[in-house]
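The freezer alarm interrupted the setup, so I double-checked each line after restarting. Inputs confirmed:
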Amino acid sequence: MDTLTIAQRRFGSRLLIGTGKFSSPQVMAAAVAASGAEIVTVALRRVDIDNPSDDTLREIDREKLLLLPNTSGARDAAEAVRLARLARAATGIEWVKLEVTPDPYYLLPDPVGTLEAATTLVKEGFVVLPYINADPILARRLEDVGTATVMPLASPIGSNQGMRTRAALEIIIEQSNVPVVVDAGLGLPSHAAEAMEIGADAVLVNTAIATAADPVEMATAFRLAVEAGRRAYLSGPRAPLRRAEASSPLTGFLRDEVTKP
Amino acid sequence: METLKLNGVERQYASGQMPATLAALLADLGVDGSAVVAEVDGAIVPAAGFAETPVAAGQSIELIKFMGGG
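Predicted 3D structure, all chains:
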């Protein structure tokens, strides 16, 4: 498969994995390995003082994988900027998946807060990958302030509903000069393949893999689907037609033609 | 008694028993500091600075680490 470039860094995989909701760090690590992902997202939270030994991330091989801290839990721009600065202080990583989600029921991102936080973080030298609704104008505005990608949602986070925003995603993909990573709501490998077939540069998957009965096998399925979708996109698929178009020759039929008088 | 606010919860220490630095505080709590970043009254302190960062009564300290997340 052709490589993906984000902020001058090249990746062989077009599947990003979120590390939440796995039953154990070991299962998470095995699923990440099976997925072939080279970028994994992580969240920042308070240390559990009563259970300080819990360390989900000890299984992540930082030599092979780029840790992409997210700002999940941020309800406004100020909280997101604070989380991004903490993540950078903790790891030295300048990359951040920017999430500003004031609404706890649908976890839809706040476009105004996201643009505000992105502007601040880009000025501070962060490589910003913003999670957004599938809004082509917002995508353009974020690109203008210097984000490294845009990450429009397919449907609400963790909902497994698939490509509900397809029409808007197609416009974003058509217009974007930065990589488009379809994030959130992809519940099946076919959803991921669909995103890649319409020209998304990458997809991010967490819940569909982490909560499957066999996360490692599901991670493999997503890896194959992303590769299939990318290869299909690069192959130049033809548009749908309203009527049939024969695949077999329309001459040499085994019947006598009726000659008209 | 001296009080420290730790991750939003007040903790009491007998006079003279409060850890002197962030590193000592983490050791006291049994927290591996290598994967932790701290905020002391809103100012970020990376792990490399824990040994030199004094802890004083009345401070609000946040101890934060990475977890699994999308």
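Quick read of the result. The interface with chain B takes residues 18-22, 25, 28, 41-47, 49, 52-53, 55-58, 67, 69-70, 72, 85-87, 89-91, 157-158, 184, 204, 206-207 of chain A (CB under 8 Å).
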